[in-house]
Amino acid sequence: MNPFESGLAFHIGKEALELLQSVRIGIAGAGGLGSNCAANLVRSGFKQFVIVDFDNVEYSNLNRQFFFWAQSGKPKVEMLRENLMAINPDLDLSMHSRKIDSANMNDFFSECQAIVEAFDNPECKKMIVERYMNSEKLLVAASGISGWGQSDRIKTRRIRENFFIVGDMVSEASRECPPMSPAVNIAAAKQADVVLSYYLARVKSGLGHEA
User: Distance of alpha carbon 145 from its chain centroid, rounded?
Assistant: First the structure.
């Protein structure tokens, strides 16, 4: 247990931290949702991640994504690895600079107990949800996170026992309603909070992540 983890155990307890560290989380997309959700999950104590995104960091991403000026032009997954390891250097990260499709999806996420859908493409969102919404995995998706000034509209909806959607279900990104840091970060934090709450509840009930 490194100093960061010891400090976290002070807040949530050793048993809870051990459970969180046993969970492998898949994150589909490393943009505004995925990068910020990953950072929140690492700060919460999760340690094992599979993160997939084929894109490079662009300057236009910096208004909302967990990347920095000097990382522009470089693969998102590799830059996110650097940023997450700066929080906890003992992470178990499986980073893939690949495009997810229906044929390879399970190759990435079959060993994950939880999956965060963090795409900005509606068809890709649908693909992930349809594949895993009826599985035993915890699935946390997002829909409607653009714009500003109405952050209270971003809600968490429990669709099934292990399927949640975060967002307002309406505000798609457009020129009139661009993705901005406050709303995107709120949605990403809510996604992370769903995952954290889901597994901490198992500590209180005495169940492991297999339950």
Answer: 14
Cα 94 to Cα 96: distance, rounded to the nearest angstrom: 7
**Model confidence at 210: pLDDT above 70:** no
Indicate which CATH number applies to the domain containing 174: 3.40.50.720
117: β partners: 28
Rounded mean pLDDT of 193-201? 97
Over the stretch 38-87, which tens digit does the pLDDT of each residue have? 999 999 999 999 999 999 999 999 999 999 999 999 999 999 999 999 99
Do 49 and 38 form a contact (C-beta atoms < 8 A)? yes
With a CB cutoff of 8 Å and minimum separation 6, the contacts of 50 are 24, 25, 26, 27, 94, 96, 108, 109, 111, 112
pTM of the entire structure? 0.94
Do you know the residue count of the chain? Answer: 211
pLDDT at position 151 is 87
Write out the residue range of the structural domain in which residue 181 sits: 24-205
Inside any domain, residue 8: no
Which residues have CB under 8 Å from 159's CB, separation 6+? 133, 165
Domain assignment of residue 9, yes or no: no
